[in-house]
């Protein structure tokens, strides 16, 4: 490694989302991660094709109706966080994103929750639980923004 | 080709049954459906329970029309690639999802003129019978709005420690 390369110290980001819409929305935020060292984590191995050449980790899916899956997801995400030690965690949910925010906070990462644009009438349950623990808490609908969070700064629907 | 998808999580037999029945009566042979983990098998259309993301992308690109549950991933893809799309929202009361967020999404996006919504089976059948009238909506870009990207970027950059002073010998020998 040259002296120049050692002088550069990119921010390490864990970008994590459940499959389907959560993942599609996370991908639409990629320009914000440019220049950072990003580890992508999601619940479907086939999504590797969306982030060629990037670090990719498969995580188990979970929802709040399946406690065993929830525990397994929780454990895997804790291990992932301890291994990767990201500076920043960004997630669009759902349940695995909640764990990423809580463990991220414990490990002194800076954390971002962007609530899914699919939550139009009210915030997602995972968003209501995780949001207050996130350093940056955003909704994608202006009418859902509130003092004290979440804030509104734009959406993936443009 | 008509590409039908119910997403990766739950089956949606009410949607598939309408499409299957319509394909049978109208002799459409170019319908492919991803039906999820369902016991009910369609008779008149090609189908698979699940397909890999690469296969999904191929079929999506080849499709003239998308028929879907009101899942955000499929809706965003349809808008980005300017595919005409009709969605039918899942209903919690029919045990098709855990809550009615798809109904709320569908209502809001229909009001914004982004998608065509069939709120029930008869509306879906009517839309299928006039499928040629379905037009692609206004295209969305590949990425989120500048406002959102900037907000995220600023937050990420704010935590970056001051860059270490470069060894000037490399730059100015």
Briefly summarize what is shown.
By secondary structure, chain A is α/β, with parallel strands linked by helices.
SSE succession of chain A: HEHEEHEHEHEE
Low-pLDDT runs of chain A: none
Helix count of chain A, per DSSP? 5
Question: Architecture of chain A in CATH?
Answer: 3-Layer(aba) Sandwich
Total helices of chain B: the number is 7
Q: Which percent range describes the beta-strand content of chain B?
A: 5-15%
Distance between the termini of chain B: 63 Å
* CATH class wording of chain B: Alpha Beta
Key words describing this protein structure:
heterodimer; A: 158 residues; alpha/beta; Rossmann fold; 5 helices; B: 173 residues; 13% strand
How is the topology of this model organized?
The complex is a heterodimer of chains A (158) and B (173).
Chain A (H helix, E strand, L loop, with lengths): L2 H5 L4 E5 L4 H7 L9 E6 L12 E4 L8 H18 L3 E4 L3 H12 L3 E5 L10 H6 L5 E4 L11 E2 L6
Helix pairs in contact in A: 3-4
Chain B lengths: L1 E4 L7 H14 L4 E4 L11 E3 L4 H10 L2 E5 L2 H9 L4 E4 L12 H11 L4 E2 L3 H9 L16 H13 L9 H4 L2
Parallel strand pairs in B: 1-2, 1-4, 2-3, 4-5, 5-6
Helix pairs in contact in B: 1-5
Could you please describe the fold and organization of this structure?
The complex is a heterodimer of chains A (158) and B (173). Chain A has helices spanning 3-7, 21-27, 67-84, 95-106, 125-130; strands at residues 12-16, 37-42, 55-58, 88-91, 110-114, 136-139, 151-152. Chain A is of the alpha/beta class. Chain A has one domain: Glycogen Phosphorylase B (Rossmann fold), CATH 3.40.50. Chain A has a seven-stranded parallel beta sheet with strand order 3-2-1-4-5-6-7. In chain A, strand 4, helix 4 (95-106) and strand 5 (110-114) form a beta-alpha-beta unit. The N and C termini of chain A lie far apart (41 Å). Chain B has helices at residues 13-26, 53-62, 72-80, 101-111, 121-129, 146-158, 168-171, and strands at residues 2-5, 31-34, 46-48, 65-69, 85-88, 116-117. In chain B, helix 4 links the parallel strand 5 and strand 6 (116-117). The model of chain B has no long low-confidence stretch (mean pLDDT 92). Chain B is an alpha/beta fold. In chain B, strands 3-2-1-4-5-6 form a six-stranded parallel beta sheet, with helices on both faces.
């Amino acid at each position: 490694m040259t002296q120049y390369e050692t002088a550069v110290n990119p921010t390490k980001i864990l970008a994590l989302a459940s499959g389907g819409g959560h993942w599609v929305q996370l991908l639409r935020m990629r320009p914000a991660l440019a220049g950072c060292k990003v580890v992508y984590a999601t619940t479907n191995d086939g999504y590797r094709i969306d982030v060629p050449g990037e670090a990719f980790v498969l995580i188990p899916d979970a929802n709040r109706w399946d406690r065993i899956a929830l525990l397994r997801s929780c454990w895997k995400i804790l291990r992932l966080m301890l291994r990767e030690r990201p500076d920043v965690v960004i997630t669009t949910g759902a349940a695995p994103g909640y764990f990423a925010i809580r463990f991220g906070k414990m490990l002194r990462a800076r954390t971002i929750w962007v609530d899914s644009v699919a939550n139009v009438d009210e915030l997602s349950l995972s968003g209501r639980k995780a949001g207050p623990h996130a350093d940056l808490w955003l909704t994608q609908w202006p009418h859902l923004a509130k003092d004290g969070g979440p804030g509104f700064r734009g959406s993936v629907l443009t | 080709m008509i590409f039908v998808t119910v997403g990766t999580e739950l089956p949606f037999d009410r949607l598939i049954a309408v499409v299957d029945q319509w394909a049978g009566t109208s002799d459409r042979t170019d319908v492919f459906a991803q039906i999820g983990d369902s016991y009910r098998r369609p008779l008149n259309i090609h189908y698979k329970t699940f397909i890999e993301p690469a296969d999904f992308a191929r079929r999506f690109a080849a499709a003239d029309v998308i028929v879907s549950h009101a899942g955000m991933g499929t809706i965003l893809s349809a808008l980005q690639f300017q595919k005409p799309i009709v969605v039918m929202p899942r209903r919690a009361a029919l045990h098709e999802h855990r809550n009615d967020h798809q109904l709320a999404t569908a209502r809001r996006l229909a009001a914004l003129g982004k998608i065509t919504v069939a709120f029930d089976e008869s509306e879906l059948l009517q839309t299928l019978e006039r499928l040629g009238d379905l037009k692609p909506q206004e295209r969305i870009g590949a990425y989120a709005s500048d406002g959102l990207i900037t907000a995220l970027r600023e937050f990420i950059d704010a935590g970056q420690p001051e860059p270490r002073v470069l060894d000037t010998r490399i730059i100015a020998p």
